Amino acid sequence: MWRSISLRTRLNLIFASLFALWLVVDAGHVVFQASARTRAETQSAMRLTKDFVATALARLPDRPERSAVEALVASLQNLRHVRAGLGEPSLASSIMLEANNESEAPRWFRALVNAPGEVAAIPVSLSDGRTESIVIVADPADEIDEVWAGARDHALVGALMALAALGVTSLLVGRAVKPLGVASATLARLEAGDYAARAEGGGPPEIRNLNAKIDSLAQALGDLKRANSELVERVFDAQDEERQVIAHELHDEFGPHLFALRASAAVLAKKVGDDPAARAAVSAIEAQVEALQGQNRRILADLRPAALEELGLAEALEALVAHWRRAEPGVAVALEADPRVDAMSERASLMAYRFVQEAMTNAFRHAGATRIDVSLRFEAPALEPSPGDAGLGGFVIRVGDDGRGLQGETEAGMGLAGMRDRVRLLGGQVAIGSPPGGGVVVEARFGAAGAVGEREKFPANPGVNPIKSSND
Questions:
Q1: Residue 465 binned pLDDT confidence (cut-offs 50, 70, 90)
Q2: Of 167, 188, 216, which closes a domain?
Q3: Which of 40-44, 223-227, 319-323, 380-384 has the lowest mean pLDDT?
Q4: Residue 116: its pLDDT value, please?
């Protein structure tokens, strides 16, 4: 519970506790002083009253009239802190009860003051032969009422002062911990990948030192991110160059040899005559060479799609989709590409092609899908420019299928890791999810925040005629 309370609230609670303790101690001090003072006042009043009664009785006859004694008792009612009556000694209980009922202080406060009333009974022999007692009861009610009124006003003033002090301290604490909120917000931005965030603001030297360290961390993380991006870029450039070299080798060296083998097989077929076994062997050689040529063309397409350089991204993707339609005729493949994709840079076009290529390969190999939808579009307006490539703001690539879904698979393979690295290199983000309707959606977004949601048909931007392809 305590761990979940903010620092500001903790400090306010500490100050509030200190003020409450101060009020309690002050109230205890008031009660303690009131108890001692009330005892002293009542005891003094009892002594004076008993002396006064003794002196007054000495001036009366030995057996005074009852009326004279009653007059003496009546004169005692004007004295402070005492009450008197004429009768039996048990009369003291009713006198004390009457005094308590007339007191303004609550019972619990009188119990805290703890000033019990003293009782004295002075017997008097009356002229009619009876003996009654002048009952004197110490009454601390007046003194307790005065203490109660003072304590009440004192507590009210103290509470108001405590509230005012608590408000001031809360304001000061809020201003003191405000720089910590700036530091926390900066760390949250760093955690989200915004390494340009800086902890700006004032505060005491300790907080300024903390903010300086956070800024140093942000600078280091930003430098590492840039270095990593440069490294990834060089790695991809090296891979693409190596793929291009291998593709040229296969096309310029391996391809002519296969063509020569096929031509030699054709010449050999003319010279073997009608020998069935020889003709069968020649036909097998021709079939194997043709299969090798087909495999060579597929490898060339994977290494460096010629259509991407010659015809542009949209046509290259159409050729890729056509290849999969021939290879997997039982799967319906739909392609929708915004015509503006052909205006993207070479690096961005290659990224988009590789992304779609890898996503479709995974869908065909692992999803068990009956339909695959591929969409490349520009969302208008873009929420923010793409930091990696100015022409990719609002660009979205989405490949969805109706297969078996992720089925708890969260680890990314080499192909998916490469897809993410290529997208991040150009300032985008990759999201993968299973929509409520089933299947998997793989999405890359540039310059706009978004996540994979329910699979949908991908509408074109208003006023743009997309290139559509489907084998439905």
A1: very low
A2: 167
A3: 380-384
A4: 64
Q: Cα–Cα distance between 91 and 95 in angstroms, integer?
A: 6
pLDDT tens per residue across span 276-330: 888 788 788 888 888 887 777 777 666 666 667 677 888 888 888 888 888 888 8
Mean pLDDT of the chain: 76
The two three-digit tokens of residue 331, written as one number = 């799967």
Indicate the pTM of the whole model: 0.48
For residue 351, how many other CB atoms are within 10 A of its CB? 27
- CA angle at 355 for the pair 352 and 358, rounded to the nearest 5°: 150
Are the CB atoms for 142 and 81 separated by under 8 Å?
Answer: yes
Under the banding of pLDDT at 50, 70 and 90, the label for residue 453 is very low
Q: How many folded domains does the chain comprise?
A: 2
- pLDDT for 399 beyond 90: yes
Q: Which two tokens stand for residue 260?
A: 């020569």
Domain annotation covers residue 203:
no
Candidates 183, 179, 175; CA nearest to 215 is: 183
- Asked whether residue 448 is domain-assigned, the answer is yes
Residues 457 and 334: beta-carbon distance below 8 Å: no
Residue 181 lies in a domain: no
Question: 302-310 long-range contacts, Cβ below 8 Å, gap at least 24?
Answer: 302/357, 303/243, 303/244, 303/246, 303/247, 303/250, 304/240, 304/243, 304/244, 304/247, 305/353, 308/349, 308/350, 308/353
Position 109 pLDDT exceeds 90: no
Q: Which of 136, 167, 198 is the last residue of a domain?
A: 167
User: Which structural domain range is residue 432 located in?
Assistant: 312-470
Number of Cβ atoms within 10 Å of the Cβ of 174:
13
Q: Does the CA dihedral 105-109-111-114 come out positive or negative?
A: negative
Task: State the CATH number of the domain containing residue 416.
Answer: 3.30.565.10
Q: Give the β-pairing of 371-378 and 332-337.
A: parallel
Is residue 296 in some structural domain? no
